[in-house]
Structures are given as structure tokens and as C-alpha cells.
Design goal:
Blueprint lengths: L6 E5 L4 H13 L2 E6 L5 H12 L3 E4 L5 E5 L12 E2 L4 H12 L4 E5 L10 H9 L3 E5 L3 E7 L8 E3 L5 H12 L4 E6 L6 H8 L4 E5 L5 E6 L8 E3 L4 H13 L4 E8 L6 H8 L3 E10 L2 E9 L20 H9 L4 E3 L13 H11 L3 E5 L2 E5 L20 H12 L20 H8 L4
Parallel strand pairs: 1-14, 2-13, 5-6, 9-10
Antiparallel strand pairs: 2-4, 3-4, 6-8, 7-8, 10-12, 11-12, 14-16, 15-16, 17-19, 18-19
Helix pairs in contact: 1-2, 1-6, 2-3, 3-4, 3-5, 4-5, 7-9, 7-11, 9-10, 9-11
Bound molecules: shikimate-3-phosphate.
């Protein structure tokens, strides 16, 4: 490999999903909440700006702690201009939920990537609750949402495995009299449930024998302000886990990684491929399981990835595809239709990108089949820079592919990385030997 071994100890920024929720719930709690470890990426800042526009007082202290004075459930103010969601699907869908049960009207706009993403999945249940939503053709942004007051509690069975849809309905339910129920046949990340309960909402989760979860929230709750410590984002740690596994001689410790079981699928899959990933110092941070991960270079073997793990690593497939491209033998993934509606069509974009740098990849309707090099570096050095389509995870995954290639990889646009991981490049540089 042209890159020397990666070595050292790092701490990735705060979890994006948890950061959004910490700001949103604090903004509806009466009194001062304090958040440390908040991810200061563009997506989370879009949430902060929207909550400010609706009356919350949000400030960053000198020491990096964030202080939020909330308005109280039911008391969001009418924003005076459109809410610009940038690249952030989570901000959009969760805030649509909040506003759906408030007597305000908001217009949502976003960048070119977000404006292509489907919002019908939240429009449908929120309309059932009484919200009046006028979207652009295809159920897309820009859209205008007029909240319902009073809104109607519903029982909603999720037609797609989506934590964003689940959360939108639960957040709308918080300001809806009675009990709002979400039935989740396939479990997805449960940060909303954990944090709502932590803020004092009356929320119960029932587990059926077939794995279905039934989540009930009682509305018109008061939220109590909290002190929150946001754990490191496993979706950001993923890039360094794969980099350390692929680059010979690497030995890296990643501290404070959130390992909520609804998020930890990548670690399990990489271990099954032969990856040396050791969990150390397991503990709880901010109501979430956390550990330090010790990752060493490993010979990986291709596997057939069980589609049932997909929700617990939904954002990690692009970088898993990179790992598979250097494994011994074939990796088969399936059941990944949802990857086509992320920040980009991650199946098509990763297939094109990996093929351009010399990997052997076949795209299927719902997955990729990858025949790995058996540990040899990829050729790299594509004819043209890799097209990242405004997708931060494509840019970072292909940067890791570059480390594992002979000629390196150029990407067309690294700016989207700032949506979730502003110091990605600096952290990567800190693990490489000085030139
Ligand atoms: C998220 C849920 C997932 C994930 C996204 C963050 C969340 O999206 O891909 O990055 O914070 O709830 P879906 O709900 O669309 O699966």
C-alpha cells in the first residue's frame, strides 16, 4: 500500500442522530438544557437554526458546551422565513413531525440532494394526524406544512424501516392529546425513544415475539430540561475502522464510540469478515452504550450479509463496500433498496465509484456483489475524479478507498463532508506518519 500504517488514538465527533434529537427536545423543554459533545456539522446546525427560528434560545459556550432554553411543548413560534434544511433529511423529517402538531405554518427548503428525496413517507402519517402539507411534485421539497391544532392521535405501522418516520410521528404525538402509537416491524435506531423517556415523556415500548416493537407515547407532556453528553458517532468511526483494517500494519484506538445495538451492525459484520475490532471499557454515556474500539489491520474474507442487519448499519454500507473490495472472495449484499433514497443513490454511486478505481462490482436492484482483491490494494487513479453527488458518506468512503489503492483516489467535491464530520481530513492526517 502506498500509505504507511495508520496509528494513534482518536475521538470522533458526536453522534449526528443524537445531536439533532438533543437540540430538538431541549428546544421544547422549559428551562435550560446543556449539551456536551454536540456534533457541530452543517446538518445539526440546520436543526439549531430552525429551532431558534421557532423561539428556542440556543448558544454555544466557550468550553464547547451548548446551552438551550426551550419554549415548552405546544409553544413553538411561527418562523418568519423558510426553514433551510441544507442537506439534512433528519432535520427535515423530524421537524415536520414537531410542527405537524403546532398551530404554525412552515416552508421547508433544501439543497439539490435533499430536494430529490422522498417526503411522502412522513407526509402520509402527519396528514392523518391533521397536518396540511403541500409538497413539490413527487412529495418532495420545497414543501409547506400547516400544523394541526388540535392534532389527532394515530396508530401507525411503518411501511419502511425508517427511524426518521418513526421519530416524526412520535414527536408529533408529543403535542397531541391521547396516545400515539407507532408499530415498527423491523427495529430501527431508538435514540428518539431513549431521549424522549429521558426528558420525562410518558413512552412505552412493547416487544412482540417476532421482533415487532410497539411504541406508545402519551401526548401533551411536559419535557424537563436535561444535561446530555453525546457519544461519538459510530457512523463516523466507521471510516477509521475500515481504514485501519485495510491498511497493513495499522493499529488504531477510537475512543468513546456509541455502540447502541440499533447502530452497531457494521462492527458485527466486519468481525464476521475477520476484522480485529476489540471493544474496551464498555460504559454508558448519555443513556447510550459506548466503548473504545481497538482496530488492527486484518485479512478480511467476503461474506453474504444478512439483510436483517441493514437497519443497524444503514449509513455504513458505502464504507463496507470499500472493505469488501479488498476482502478475499465475494461479498453479497441485498435488501438495500433504502440506500437508493439517501443523500444519493448509494448503490449506483458506489458501484460506479468503485469500478472506476478498479474494484470488481456488480449492481443488483437491491444490493452490490463485490469480488475482493484478497488484500491487494485497488489500482486507484481513475480517469476522472469520483462523482460524490453531494453525499458526504460517498466522499469519505472513497477517501478511504484512496488509502487502500496504489494510485490514490480523487473525489470531485469534499465540501459535503462538513455536513457530518468537519474534521475528517485532519483526523485522518493525525493517524498517518509525518511525511
Ligand atoms: C436517521 C435515520 C436513518 C439514517 C439517517 C439518520 C435518524 O434514516 O439513514 O442518516 O437520525 O433517524 P432513515 O430513517 O431514512 O432510515
Amino acid at each position: 500500500m502506498p500509505t504507511g500504517p495508520l496509528a494513534g488514538t482518536i475521538r470522533v465527533p458526536g453522534d449526528k442522530s443524537i445531536s439533532h434529537r438533543a437540540l430538538m427536545l431541549s428546544a421544547l423543554a422549559v428551562g435550560e438544557s446543556r449539551i456536551s459533545g454536540l456534533l457541530e456539522g452543517e446538518d445539526v446546525m440546520a436543526t439549531a437554526a430552525a429551532m431558534r427560528a421557532m423561539g428556542a434560545d440556543i448558544e454555544r459556550s466557550q468550553n464547547g458546551e451548548w446551552r438551550v432554553h426551550g419554549v415548552g411543548v405546544g409553544a413553538l413560534l411561527q418562523p418568519q422565513s423558510a426553514l433551510d434544511m441544507g442537506n439534512s433529511g433528519t432535520s427535515t423529517r423530524l421537524l415536520m413531525g414537531w410542527i405537524a402538531s403546532h398551530a404554525i405554518t412552515a416552508t421547508f427548503t433544501g439543497d439539490a440532494s435533499l430536494s430529490k428525496r422522498p417526503m411522502g413517507r412522513v407526509i402520509e402519517p402527519l396528514s392523518e394526524m391533521g397536518a396540511d402539507i403541500t409538497a413539490s411534485p413527487g412529495g418532495r421539497l420545497p414543501l409547506m406544512l400547516r400544523g394541526a391544532a388540535p392534532s389527532v392521535p394515530i396508530t401507525y405501522r411503518l411501511p419502511v424501516a425508517s427511524a426518521q418516520v418513526k421519530s416524526a410521528v412520535l414527536l408529533a404525538g408529543l403535542n397531541t392529546a391521547g396516545i400515539t402509537t407507532v408499530i415498527e416491524p423491523v427495529p430501527t435506531r431508538d435514540h428518539s425513544e431513549r431521549m424522549l423517556a429521558g426528558f420525562g415523556a410518558e413512552l412505552t415500548v412493547e416487544h412482540e415475539s417476532d421482533g415487532t416493537r410497539i411504541i406508545r407515547i402519551r401526548g401533551e407532556a411536559e419535557l424537563r430540561p436535561q444535561i446530555i453528553d453525546v457519544p461519538g458517532d459510530p457512523s463516523s468511526a466507521a471510516f477509521f475502522i475500515v481504514a485501519a483494517l485495510l491498511v497493513p500494519g495499522s493499529d488504531v484506538i477510537i475512543e468513546n464510540v456509541g455502540l447502541n445495538p440499533t447502530r452497531a451492525g457494521l462492527v458485527e459484520v466486519l468481525r464476521a469478515m475477520g476484522g480485529a475490532i476489540e471493544s474496551m471499557n464498555p460504559r454508558e454515556v448519555g443513556g447510550e452504550p459506548v466503548a473504545d474500539l481497538h482496530v488492527r489491520h486484518s485479512a478480511l474474507t467476503g461474506i453474504d450479509v444478512d439483510p436483517a442487519v441493514a437497519p443497524s448499519m444503514i449509513d455504513e454500507f458505502p464504507v463496507l463496500f470499500v472493505a469488501a473490495a479488498l476482502a478475499q472472495g465475494r461479498t453479497i449484499t441485498s435488501g438495500l433498496d433504502e440506500l437508493r433514497v439517501k443523500e444519493s443513490d448509494r448503490l449506483a454511486v458506489m458501484a460506479t465509484a468503485l469500478k472506476a478505481v478498479g474494484a470488481r462490482v456488480t449492481e443488483t436492484p437491491d444490493g452490490l456483489i463485490i469480488d475482493g482483491t484478497g488484500g491487494d490494494p485497488l489500482p486507484g487513479g481513475a480517469n476522472a475524479p469520483i462523482a460524490t453527488h453531494l453525499d458526504h458518506r460517498i466522499a469519505m468512503s472513497m477517501a478511504i478507498a484512496g488509502l487502500a489503492s496504489r494510485a490514490g483516489v480523487d473525489v470531485d467535491d469534499t465540501s459535503p463532508i462538513a455536513t457530518s464530520f468537519p474534521n475528517f481530513q485532519a483526523m485522518l492526517d493525525s493517524l498517518s506518519p509525518a511525511e
